[in-house]
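During the reporting period the student researcher (J.K.) took over the structure-prediction task from the postdoctoral fellow and processed the backlog of single-chain submissions. One of the processed entries is reproduced below for the supervisory committee.
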Amino acid sequence: MHTVPPLSTVAAEARALAAALHERQVRFLADLISIRSYTGQEQAAVERTLQELRAVGCADVHVDSAGNALGRIGNGPRVLLYDAHLDTNEVADDSEWPHPPLQPVVENGALWGLGASDCKGGVASIVYGAAILAAILKALKRESDFTVWVMGATLEEDAEGFALRSLVERDGLRPDVVLLAEATDLSLRRGQRGRCEVRVRTTGRAAHASTPDLGDSALLKMLPIVSALQAMNASLPTHPVFGQGTQAVTLIEGPHTPNSVPSWCEIALDRRMMPGETAGSILAGIEAAVGPLGGTARIAEQPVRTHTGLQLDGPSYFPGWYLEDGHPVLDAGLETCQHLWGARPAVDVWRFSTDGTYSAGAAGIPTLGYSPQEERYVHAVNDQVDLGKLEKAAAFYALFPFVFSPKE
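J.K. obtained the following structure tokens:
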């Protein structure tokens, strides 16, 4: 096996190749933006990603059982997975957008369009990180001591982590580390709060609304429960980085009979969790509050169907996670940026949920975030990604495996 050159040399090559391949990277991203790929409807975007994975030199290019696009660089013992999702949120009104959402436009050094920041800019970053990595390995004429899988993920907008869970638990690909290309603005993201949806239900006795005294209103029984759940916010768990957990009643339902006293009432409770909280601990606290008031609680079931037709229904429970100071994956991210640009990046946490809720929160796989996209453009009508940052992100993903792999 040939000796690996110094990381400074590999970093210089990564920067040069990122610049040389940049136009191709932008064209690929523009193609992805022009394809509508709402959650569960990602097939065309998956096929376009597979085409690009083949073109940049990936091996084992395929679609897994959950419909994710996958390609591999290298065949060494240490396995890294790069994850960025292809599905986007739905557009409510095209007329609100400064440019048609599916017609990519370059303006002021940025590429605009639906999904540019969440998360197709991330897909273009990891695919072209793989392209650069393949070229470097070819130039070195050596086998890698790592394997990098690139994943154009599905389902993230509606059910983050479900497609990744399928890849690991159903298809058997378990990486040693996961890198997420969700919006970070070229900083590192080391964690996120978790979330879950809890359903609380009350029951009563139906009666005609003209004689309400003959009934027992489940809706009225719910009123003190809503107050009790709101009062819990003052005592929810806290974290030194994420602050205090929150919960909010977001939906109320009952029979669709406006002239009847309702026999049942159900609310949805959005709970934002700290790392370390479990489904059992959350339910226990809520049941203690609502049980004496006549309510019952359960974690909602999330219906999920992939574009391949696979049903992946599961609990609407997405645990939080946090990568501590000194973790080798975090240190490798810092060192990668140092070698590429002579400075270490900012380190922060996400305010929203990602596929890391499964990889780190549920499966315990060390997970780190890095990408060119900016959170302020996520799910916004001015959705865009800076093209200079896009180029830098590709270089990061090319160099990271050399930094993280054991030195020879």
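The committee noted the following: The domain at 7-192+320-404 is CATH 3.40.630.10 (Aminopeptidase).
J.K. will present the remaining backlog at the next meeting.
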